Amino acid sequence: MSTDKRPLIAGNWKMNGTGAALAEISRLRNLVADSGAARADILICPPATLLHRASETASGSAIAVGGQDCHAAASGAHTGDISAQMLTDAGATHVIVGHSERRTDHGETSADVRAKADVALGAGLIPVICVGETEAEREAGSANRVVADQFASSLPDYGDGTEIIIAYEPVWAIGTGKTPTIADIADMHAHIRQLLVERFGEAGAAARILYGGSVKPSNAEEILSVPNVDGALVGGASLKADDFFAIVAAS
Ligand code: 13P
Fold first, then answer.
1. Where are the domains of the chain?
2. Tens digit of pLDDT for each residue in 22-65?
3. CB distance 83 to ligand 1 below 6 Å
4. How far does residue 69's CA lie from ligand 1's centre (Å)?
5. Which atom of ligand 1 approaches the CA of 236 most closely?
6. What pTM was computed for the model?
7. Phi-psi region of 9 (alpha: psi -120 to 50; beta: other; left: phi over 0)
8. Is any ligand 1 atom within 6 A of the Cβ of residue 68?
9. Which CATH superfamily is domain 8-68+82-249 in?
10. Are strands 165-168 and 8-12 parallel, antiparallel or unpaired?
């Protein structure tokens, strides 16, 4: 790793997995145990239906579990939604907020994301706040401005920056097998670091910035060695314990 921060390798299972997939967490648990102390912190964000069983399966291991989203309200008449406190109650320690798939599929705005991050912090969860530009925005040369705008409007009002994680996920790299160049990843992560330091000072320097978008065993080592890349948010390659563990081992 490029910094002395302990990396975080996080898996986002998205809308994948039924009870049978818990075997992957058991296998991951064994792989981590057999390797001795992993150098990275490990987080799995399964679908909400599996969260409680996943946290039981991971209990006593180095694997944390998290939610993929939460509602911005603490409770109430929101059929089908899940509150931050419910995630905590099910065993989650983290929650992803503002993933581009939620921004696209559910029309979530950065203001919505900020409200979710606030309620997550209030419930004792660490929000993993996602930002990232589309391909058109990158081609137009506006990636830095788009990410700065998302950063400014998606981060919580609550807290001092010590309990947040940023995930930079270029939308065009998600699930496509395409990744930015190493230089582009380095530039964007340095940009986000600067935004964090301007906003939070020392806590911003210490905050983790994850890269997400087509991370797999074959590119993990190179991506994770980029300055200011403090871990990865992994989609497809997190579904199989062996692939995911290979990424953990590359950190
Ligand atoms: P992939 O790793 O499948 O590209 O997904 C990345 C992602 O969206 C993680 O949140």
1. 8-68+82-249
2. 999 999 999 999 998 778 999 999 999 999 999 999 999 999 99
3. no
4. 15
5. 3
6. 0.97
7. beta
8. no
9. Aldolase class I (3.20.20.70)
10. unpaired
Strand partners, 194: none
Beta pairing partners, 9: 42, 232
How many residues does this entry show for the chain? 251
- Residue 225 above 60 pLDDT? yes
Kindly list the distances between the CA atom of residue 178 and the CA atoms of 30, 43, 91, 171, in Å, as whole numbers in the listed order.
31, 23, 34, 10
Quote the pLDDT of residue 5.
85
Q: How many CB atoms neighbour CB 221 within 10 A?
A: 13
Side-chain half-sphere CA neighbours of 51 within 13 A: 25
C-alpha span between 22 and 8 (Å, rounded): 21
Q: How far apart are CA 90 and CA 225, in angstroms?
A: 34
Whole-angstrom Cα distance, residue 140 to residue 129?
24
Ligand 1 centroid from CA 76, angstroms: 31
Cα–Cα–Cα angle for 128, 186, 228, rounded to 5 degrees: 50
Q: Would you call 70 helix, strand, or coil by DSSP? A: coil
